[in-house]
Backbone:
């Protein structure tokens, strides 16, 4: 009986604490996005500014690794068995992309624009 309770309690705890961590991270992302909304990060490679010289250019990056919680890992495993869209990973990818963009903007300092933005995802 204790093993069954433990088996049910572990995913419930994973869901509860994972949801709390995800919610806290989204609040942080929204707050920082408001602060950095005036700095555009665009995918174009060049910008024409007639009569205006580029004073400084540097390479910046924003890297992030975000793990999935225990409950979502179980739900994704079940979805993989039956096929279909793995919705439990969608918020994970969204958070990672937004966080990487924010880190890149924070690393840009006093830049006016970030050019040639590329986002790549991979599994480790």
Residues:
């Amino acid at each position: 009986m204790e093993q069954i309770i433990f088996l049910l309690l572990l995913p419930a705890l994973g869901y509860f604490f994972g949801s709390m961590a995800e919610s806290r991270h989204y609040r942080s992302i929204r707050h920082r996005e408001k602060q950095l909304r005036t700095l555009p990060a665009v995918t174009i490679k060049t910008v024409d500014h007639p009569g205006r010289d580029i004073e400084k250019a540097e390479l910046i990056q924003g890297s992030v690794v975000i793990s999935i919680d225990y409950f979502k890992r179980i739900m994704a495993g079940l979805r993989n068995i039956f096929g279909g869209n793995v919705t439990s990973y969608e918020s994970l990818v969204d958070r990672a992309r937004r966080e990487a963009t924010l880190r890149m903007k924070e690393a840009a300092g006093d830049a006016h624009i970030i050019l040639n933005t590329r986002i790549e995802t991979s599994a480790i």
The radius of gyration is 20 Å. Residues 19 and 115 are 34 Å apart (CA to CA).
